[in-house]
C-alpha cells in the first residue's frame, strides 16, 4: 500500500466520522471505491442484489402512500432540514466528492453548494406547485388543474456529479410527494452513503416521515435493470451517457412509464470579432479544463472567427502550457485526474483520431505525473487546431479535449454548433447585441442551454437544466422542472343545477 493511499484512507475515515458515520459503513463487500487521485481502493461497500432492489421499490411505494397525504409545505420542511445538514457538512462532503470523483476541492465544495441551493429552491416551491384555472365554456362550471405526486421515482446518477445531480432530482421529488430509490454510480458509492446518512439525520429531526422515502441501492447493471423495468417505478430520472439513456428511455417507454433523461453533451462556444477576449479566455479554460473535461456541459468545440484564430490559439497554448495539473485536494490545482484508465484510453484514442483527421495538437494531449501516481490518470488537456468540423467533433469523449475550428460568418458558426446529434449547452462571446440576440433566437442555437458571454458549463440551479436531441430532452433542477415529478389532473366542477354538455351537444333522455 502506498503512503498516499494510506493517507487517503485515513482522510476518508476522518471525513466520514465527521459526517457522523461509522467506519463499518464502508467496510462491506462487493463494491470497491477507488480514488482517481491515486487509483487505489479507499473503501468497499456492500452491493445489493436484484431482490433487494425489488424490496426497496416496494418499501418506497409504501412510504409514498403515506407521504402523498402530508401537505406539501410540510414536506418542504423535511428538505429544509436536509439543507441544514448539508450546510453543516459542506466541507466534509465536498472533500469526499473530491477524493471519490477527482474534481478539485473548489468544485467539490461547489457541488455541495449546488445541493444546498436546490434544497432552498425546493422549500420555496413546496408552498407553490401552482396549477392553472381555466374559463369554462359552460355556465355554473369551474375548470382547474391539480398536481399530484407520481409515486416511486427512480434516480440513476453519474460519477462526475455524484451529489448535485442526485439532489436536483431528489429535493424536487420529495417536496412533490414522491418516494425515491437511488442507484448511484458504481464509482462513487461512499459519497452516496454519506448523502443518505445526512438525509437520515434530517428524517430523524423531522420525526414523522415514513420509512423508505429515500432508498439507496448500490450495485451494477442487474439492480439498475430492475429499477428501469419495475411497473411501480412511475418515473426514472437518468443522467449519464446517450447509450445508457437510449436503453433506459426505450425500456421505460415500453411499459408506459415516464423518463427524464439528461445525457451526453457536445457543447460549443462561438467567439466573434467583437468578443471581450479577457472574459472568453477565462470561460474557455474553466469550461474546457474544469472537472478535467468530465462535465456533460464541458466545452468541446470552439468556433473562432477566421481573422482571430491564430491569435486565440497562441494565447490558449500559453494558458494550456501553464495549467496547474495535479492532486485535486491541493490548493491551486485547476485540473485533477481522469476518473480511470478507461477514460484515459478514450482520451488517447480520440486525440490520435483527431490528429489523423488533420488536427494539429497545439498543446497537451499526453499523460502526466505517472511517476508520482502510477495508478492515477492525469493528462494535460488537449488543444487541437482542426482544419474543419471533422468526424471526431460529432462525438462526446468524456475527457479534456478542445477542438478549435475557424468560421467566416455567424450563420456558418451556428450551423456547426447545431450539426451534432447532441443538444445540451452552447454560448456566444460577443459585444454586438444583434449577434447575441440572433444566437438566442429560433434561428440560433438549438440547445437546451444558450448563453451570452458565459461559458457552456457551470449553470445555476434556478434555470431548467437539460438539452435536446440525443441529450434526451429532459429538464431538471429549476424553473418548472418540478412538473416532471408530478402528474396533472384536469378537474371540471359543475356547481349549477343543469347538466350542459361541452361543445353544445344535445343528448336529451
Ligand atoms: C453534469 O455534468 O452532469 O452546469 C451536470 C454545470 C453543472 C452541472 C453539470 N451545474 O456544469
What would you say about this model in short?
The protein is α/β, with parallel strands linked by helices and 509 residues long. 39% of the residues lie in helices and 20% in strands.
Described by the principal axes of the CA atoms, the overall outline is globular
Weakly predicted, low-confidence segments: 1-5
Work out the number of β strands.
23
Helix content: 25-40%
The strands making up the biggest β-sheet line up spatially as 12-15-16-11-10-18-19
Q: Mean pLDDT, nearest integer?
A: 97
Q: Give a quick account of the main beta sheet: strands, pairing sense, barrel closure.
A: 7 strands, mixed
- Give the termini distance in whole angstroms: 87 Å
Oligomer status: single chain
Identify every distinct bound molecule in the structure, by name, code or SMILES.
Answer: 2-aminohexanedioic acid
Structural class comes to alpha/beta
Radius of gyration from CA coordinates:
24 Å
Range of strand content? 15-25%
Number of helices: 14
Description:
The chain contains 14 helices and 23 strands. The chain is α/β, with parallel strands linked by helices. A 7-stranded mixed β-sheet has the order 12-15-16-11-10-18-19, sandwiched between helices. A 5-stranded parallel β-sheet has the order 7-6-5-8-9, with helices on both faces. A 3-stranded antiparallel β-sheet has the order 3-4-23, with no helix packed on it. α4 (90-101) packs across α5 (105-125). Residues 1-5 have low confidence and may be disordered. Bound molecules: 2-aminohexanedioic acid (UN1). Residues 114, 158, 160-161, 165, 239, 295-297, 457-459 line the site of 2-aminohexanedioic acid.
Amino acid at each position: 500500500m502506498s503512503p498516499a493511499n494510506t493517507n487517503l484512507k485515513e482522510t476518508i475515515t476522518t471525513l466520514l466520522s465527521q459526517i457522523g458515520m461509522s467506519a463499518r459503513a464502508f467496510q462491506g463487500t462487493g463494491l470497491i471505491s477507488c480514488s482517481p487521485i491515486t487509483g487505489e481502493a479507499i473503501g468497499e461497500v456492500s452491493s445489493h442484489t436484484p431482490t433487494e432492489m425489488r424490496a426497496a421499490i416496494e418499501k418506497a411505494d409504501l412510504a409514498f402512500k403515506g407521504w402523498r397525504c402530508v401537505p406539501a409545505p410540510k414536506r418542504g420542511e423535511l428538505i429544509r432540514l436536509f439543507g441544514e445538514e448539508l450546510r453543516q457538512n459542506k466541507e466534509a462532503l465536498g472533500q469526499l466528492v473530491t477524493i471519490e470523483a477527482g474534481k478539485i476541492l473548489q468544485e467539490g465544495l461547489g457541488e455541495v453548494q449546488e445541493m444546498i441551493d436546490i434544497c432552498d429552491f425546493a422549500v420555496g416551491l413546496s408552498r407553490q406547485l401552482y396549477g392553472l384555472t381555466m374559463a369554462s365554456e359552460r355556465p355554473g362550471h369551474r375548470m382547474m388543474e391539480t398536481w399530484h405526486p407520481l409515486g416511486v421515482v427512480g434516480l440513476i446518477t453519474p460519477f462526475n456529479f455524484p451529489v448535485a445531480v442526485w439532489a436536483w432530482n431528489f429535493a424536487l421529488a420529495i417536496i412533490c410527494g414522491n418516494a425515491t430509490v437511488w442507484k448511484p454510480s458504481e464509482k462513487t458509492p461512499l459519497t452516496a452513503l454519506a448523502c443518505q446518512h445526512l438525509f437520515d439525520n434530517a428524517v430523524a429531526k423531522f420525526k414523522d416521515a415514513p420509512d423508505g422515502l429515500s432508498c439507496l441501492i448500490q450495485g451494477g447493471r442487474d439492480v439498475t435493470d430492475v429499477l428501469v423495468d419495475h411497473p411501480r417505478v412511475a418515473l426514472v430520472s437518468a443522467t449519464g451517457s446517450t447509450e445508457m439513456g437510449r436503453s433506459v428511455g426505450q425500456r421505460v417507454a415500453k411499459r408506459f412509464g415516464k423518463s427524464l433523461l439528461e445525457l451526453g453533451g457536445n457543447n460549443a462556444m462561438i467567439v466573434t470579432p467583437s468578443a471581450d477576449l479577457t472574459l472568453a479566455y477565462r470561460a474557455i479554460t474553466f469550461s474546457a479544463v474544469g472537472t478535467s473535461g468530465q462535465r456533460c456541459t464541458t466545452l468541446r468545440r470552439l468556433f473562432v472567427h477566421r481573422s482571430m484564430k491564430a491569435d486565440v490559439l497562441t494565447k490558449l497554448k500559453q494558458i494550456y502550457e501553464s495549467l496547474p495539473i495535479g492532486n485535486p485536494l491541493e490548493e491551486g490545482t485547476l485540473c485533477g485526474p481522469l476518473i480511470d484508465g478507461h477514460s484515459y484510453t478514450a482520451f488517447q484514442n480520440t486525440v490520435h483520431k483527431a490528429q489523423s483527421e488533420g488536427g494539429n495538437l497545439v498543446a497537451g494531449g499526453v499523460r502526466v505525473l505517472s511517476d508520482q501516481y502510477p495508478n492515477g490518470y492525469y493528462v494535460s488537456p488537449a488543444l487541437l487546431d482542426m482544419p474543419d468540423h471533422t468526424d471526431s467533433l460529432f462525438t462526446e469523449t468524456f475527457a479534456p479535449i478542445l477542438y478549435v475550428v475557424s468560421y467566416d460568418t455567424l450563420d456558418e458558426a451556428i450551423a456547426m454548433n447545431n450539426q451534432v446529434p447532441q443538444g445540451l449547452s452552447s454560448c456566444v462571446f460577443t459585444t454586438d447585441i444583434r449577434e447575441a440576440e440572433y444566437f438566442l433566437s429560433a434561428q440560433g442555437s438549438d440547445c437546451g442551454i444558450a448563453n451570452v458571454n458565459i461559458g457552456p458549463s457551470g449553470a445555476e440551479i434556478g434555470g431548467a437544466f437539460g438539452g435536446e436531441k440525443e441529450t434526451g430532452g429532459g429538464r431538471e433542477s429549476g424553473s418548472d422542472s418540478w412538473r416532471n415529478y408530478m402528474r396533472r389532473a384536469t378537474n371540471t366542477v359543475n356547481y349549477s343545477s343543469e347538466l350542459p354538455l361541452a361543445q353544445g351537444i344535445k343528448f336529451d333522455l
